[in-house]
TrEMBL record:
Entry protein name: CENP-V/GFA domain-containing protein
Domain CENP-V/GFA: residue ranges: 46-157
Entry-linked InterPro entries: CENP-V/GFA, Mss4-like_sf
Molecular-function GO terms, alphabetical: carbon-sulfur lyase activity; metal ion binding
Region described as Disordered: 1-24, 173-212
């Protein structure tokens, strides 16, 4: 019996069709996609995979640079969920061990599947969202990580909520809640009072700087 293969063209419209050589495949040799097998400085700390297992990767950093809940409508639509849980890493912190030829891209502003930053990265087979690739950082989704202990899971605890005004449900967890991007919008709802006070002081200091 012939093996079933997906009719989806992996890697968007870049034309590589899973090949590993050529100019169109330069992305495979750059972070975050390059393989760190020969790098003695890369120490795998976590392992993660998509739903079907075609995409697998490792992380070397013990804790993300930050971790947040995002309630924007784009995240709601693309994840099919009330909000997105994302953790920020450097591109060099990740090592794809399997699935280079099974990645698909989506750039939401132009709605194109060409690898154009910033873009959404997913498994081309099971469609699991893998990460958001920015120009300098990546946003990973901790639900893909195979945590080995409660302590590992706690390393990814979100620090705040973003775009909370667009929420589908209220979450009274006492974490800071921003109306837009964190640290660049208004603190609202049940944000801790000390965070609101700190934001007022920062805004006042910024206003004084502009006057001087």
């Amino acid at each position: 019996m012939a093996e079933h293969t997906s009719s989806y063209r992996a890697n968007g419209d870049n034309g590589d069709e899973g090949n590993t050589e050529g100019d169109l495949n330069a992305w495979k040799h750059r972070a975050p996609y390059k393989v760190h097998d020969s790098d003695p400085n890369f120490h795998a700390r976590y392992e993660a995979s998509c739903h079907c297992g075609k995409i697998r990767y490792q992380l070397s950093r013990e804790k993300p640079l930050d971790s947040k809940y995002c309630h924007c409508t784009t995240c709601q639509k693309l994840h099919g969920a009330p909000f997105q849980w994302a953790a920020i890493f450097h591109k060099e912190d990740i090592n794809f061990t399997h699935g280079h030829s099974d990645l698909g891209w989506y750039e939401s502003s132009e709605k194109t599947t060409v690898h154009k930053l910033p873009c959404k990265v997913s498994c081309a087979y099971c469609r699991t969202p893998i990460m958001d690739e920015g120009r300098n950082m990546i946003l990973l989704f901790p639900t893909l990580i195979n945590f080995k202990s409660p302590e590992d899971r706690k390393n990814f605890d979100p620090s705040c909520h973003m775009f909370y005004t667009r929420r589908i449900l209220d979450i009274n967890d006492g974490k800071p809640k921003w109306s837009g991007i964190s640290n660049d919008s208004e603190l609202i709802e049940d944000s801790p009072e000390q965070d609101k006070k700190r934001k007022r002081e920062e805004d006042a200091a910024e206003g004084n700087d502009k006057k001087s």
